[in-house]
User: Fold these one by one.
Assistant:
Number 1:
Amino acid sequence: MRFLTVSLVLLAAVLWPVPASAHNVLKGSDPAEGASVPHLDRVTLTFDQPVRADFAKLALTGPDGARYDAGLTVRDEVVTATVKPLTTGGAYVIGWQIVSNDGHPVSGTIRFTYTGAGAAPAGAAATLAPAPGAVSAPIPAASGGSWVWGLMVFALLMLGLATWVLHRHESRPRHAGTTPPAHDRTLA
């Protein structure tokens, strides 16, 4: 009976539903996706959970393929990047990547149009793609989460091993090898 109880407790511990650690989600940005902005001195991204500062990345790329981001700060759920003065009007792209609290990288892009006064208009050939010869760093691909399945298989194997050990322990004779030694009392 004790074996069955311990086995059920171990099985429940492994299979009990646990709240999943969700990926961080971008709640808002300034500038917003598709916005037209006349002035820009910083980019702000707001997430639903605190962001790990040591893994946050942000790049602002202009229609000419040049990068305009400068410094990056992270405070709880808010990531802020200062921006160099924009000189060319047209389409800009904010590329960002963070690491969620569950350890998975999350990334995205935000596209907006800069219409600032005094900005040189971007030519008809300006697109969201970088200019020829511009170097851009690739964003690493997100993990598929296969390590979680490996961890679950390992936990199930450990559960099986624990069950086997407990079963072997329960099936042992209780008093085997525990007979008291014979005492020889010699009267002198």
Note: The chain is about 20% helix and 25% strand.
Number 2:
Amino acid sequence: MTQLVTVDEMQQIEAYTMEESGLSAAVLTERAAMATLNVLAAGRFDLSKVLVLAGLGGNGADGVALARLLHQAKIPVTLQFVGNVNRASQAVKNQLKAANACGVPRAEKSDFKEPSLIIDAIFGIGLNKDLPDGLQKMLKAANHIDNTVVALDMPTGIDADSGEVRGAALKAKATIAFGYPKAGCQRGQGKKMAGRVITQEIGLITADDFAFSIQ
């Protein structure tokens, strides 16, 4: 069985990777986006019209980077932010600058019936409370449409440790786990909502004496 990790463990591994290797968070974001592109390009997904839903934190930065790579690969893609981009993290703003320079199309609102594939890059592992009511309503509406959704690291709305639904969650056909699959993908509702979990290596470094809590 592939090693499962908790949110705290994943954050420790990411911090250790950056401290020991000198790799920046931006490099890990780029690797995550490239790993996702490789999975999407393997032929299992309809890439005729891709919609990337990006949040304002680290998961959103992964999504923006992916949107740029898709656009540069001549794959039709639209980037839509969930939340006010003016309040986004610096990582997201940096990725958005690169995406804008490449001419990645943006949308303020989308008809979820139109995309052939939706990329969920809204929250990832950073969720520790119930989603805002407006976002819950959006996710519930999206779940009533027969879309193919691929989540980056975790489906939005699923607690990455417990697998609990935090108010509402976006159901994915597949979840691309960066480095290690998260515990919440194998627990509670998370197991159903994550779909097929595809683990991708992004260059993380784990200390030899690191003690995983899940055996």
Note: The chain has six helices and six strands.
